[in-house]
Amino acid sequence: MICMFYSTLLHLGGRPPSKESRWDDPTLDKVERNKMAWAILILAGIFEVIWAYSMKMSEGFTKLTPSIVTIVFMILSVVLLSMSMRTLPLGTAYTIWTGIGAIGSFVVGILILNEPMTAMRMIAAVLIVSGLVLMKLSSN
Residue 36 in contact with residue 9, Cβ under 8 Å? Predict the structure, then answer.
């Protein structure tokens, strides 16, 4: 799945994909590896939102299907995070990963679970996003 995702991104970037291509291939230039690491990190963050939501739906792991979805996406999310850390600094990768999960879960809570959207929660979300933007800008 990751190789297909990577090949698609390379193809969209104008470089024809090859069967041997890997996102961490040392023959790729640093910019391509960095872009791919960020794409993988974003996907890991999205998977974190999925497992957080499915964990809520599992009602304390008492429902089988959401429990299985939680475990599968937890594993996928952590594996992708670790892959991105081959290129990105630990502090940056982990902060962005948890931030995507926090903001994504916040949005899912409001839009799907009808959780309250208070001014204080919105300010907190803006501060988290601001921190994520600063972290990304500091990693260049």
Answer: yes
DSSP string, 25-85: -TTS-HHHHHHHHHHHHHHHHHHHHHHHHHHHHTTTTTSHHHHHHHHHHHHHHHHHHHHHT
For the chain, how far is it from start to end, CA to CA, in angstroms?
27
Tens of pLDDT, residues 65-83: 999 999 999 999 999 999 9
13-37 pLDDT, tens per residue? 445 445 455 655 666 778 888 899 9
CB 41 within 8 A of CB 80: yes
Distance of CA 83 to the CA centre of its chain: 11
Angstrom distance (rounded) from CA 127 to CA 59: 30
* pLDDT for position 41: 97
Rg (CA), the chain: 17
d(CA 27, CA 18): 13
**Residue span of the structural domain in which 45 resides:** 2-138
Task: Please count the structural domains in the chain.
Answer: 1
pTM assigned to the model: 0.78
